[in-house]
Amino acid sequence: MEDIFLSTKPSEMADTLDPLSPNTTTSPGRGVFNKLRMRFCRAVPISRSNGEGYVEFGEFRAEHPGVKKVGTFAGVFCPVVLSMFSALIFIRMGYLVGNAGLLVTLAQFGMAYLIVVFTVTSICAISTNGAVEGGGVYFMISRTLGPEFGGAIGTLFFFANVVSSALCVSACTEALIENFGTNGYLLHGSPGIPDGWWYRFLYRSSLNAAGLCVSLAGAALFARTSLAIWLTMLVCLSSAFLSFFITPASMVDKPDTNHLINDTTLSYTGLSSATLVSNLYPSYGRDYTTSDGQMVDFASVFGVLFTGVTGVMAGANMSGELKNPSRSIPLGTLTALLFTAISYFALSILTAATCSRELLQNNYVYLLPINVWPPFIAVGMLMATFSAGLSNLIGASRVLEALAKDNIFGFLLRPMVSRSGNPVVAVITSWLLVQLGVMVDSLNAIAQINTVLFMTSYFAINLACLGLDLASAPNFRPTFKQFSWVTSLCGLVGGALLMFSLRPLHAGGAALAVLALVLALHVLSPAAADPKWGSLSQALIFHQVRKYLLLLDPRREHVKFWRPQMLLLVASPRQSAPLIDFVNDQKKGGLFVVGHVRVGQLDGTGDPLASEHKYWLKLIDHLKVKAFVELCLAESLRGGAAHLTRLAGLGAMKPDTVLLGFRDHAPPRDFFRELSSPYKTDIFDLENGEVIFPVRRVNAPISAREYVRVVSDVLCVGKNVCLCRHFQSLDMAAVERKSSPVRYIDVWAASAVGASTPRGADAFSVRGLFALQLAAVVRSARGWQRLRLRLFAPPDHARAPTAMHEAGRTVTLESERSSEPAATRPLRDRLEELLKLLRINASIHIVSVALDE
Question: What are the transmembrane regions (predicted)?
Answer without folding.
Answer: 70-91, 111-132, 153-177, 197-220, 227-246, 298-319, 331-353, 373-400, 421-440, 452-471, 483-502, 508-529
